[in-house]
Amino acid sequence: TNNFPGGIFKYVLKVSLFDERPFEHEFFLRIAQSFPFMEEFTVRNEKRQINKQFRKSKNLSIIKYPYLKELNLIESCIDYYEQFLCDTVTYLPFNVRVLMDHELVTKVTRNFTRNRTRNNCAKINYVNLCIELEDDGYSNNFSAEKQQIPQHIKDYFPHTQMIDCC
Questions:
Q1: Are the C-beta atoms of 117 and 109 separated by less than 8 Å?
Q2: What is the reported pTM?
Q3: Which of 70, 76, 94, 96 would be 80's cystine partner, CB 3.0–4.6 Å?
């Protein structure tokens, strides 16, 4: 819940968040500080962030998750993709596994060309993209042959093994 008071919970490794109200940058900062050794993080929230437009004028702290191994954004709106993929907002560690929706990743990365998201995406070592490539002439079974993944996606996630999770 957004009413999380804080505190230090150094033995908690797995955190899952759900709320019907939006999570703001300051809330994620409290979560990162309260769970310093968090390895798995799931964010489920379809509500758009309210204070997102004010971020550009503030010098907000970059949130770090140094021990994060898995991030699940599948059931989240685009604002949380921005929150975690933009390197001016969040610093992801290397070798993190991320579960994402292909359509939202495409929008946030501006069709895999945006520099602000390139650094964090390059750190991902395993990504599950919920995608249906059949309409584009590609197979939707990423695990069968890696070369079926479009080259622009492979270039954007250079160290990543990809599979289709849908």
A1: yes
A2: 0.84
A3: 76
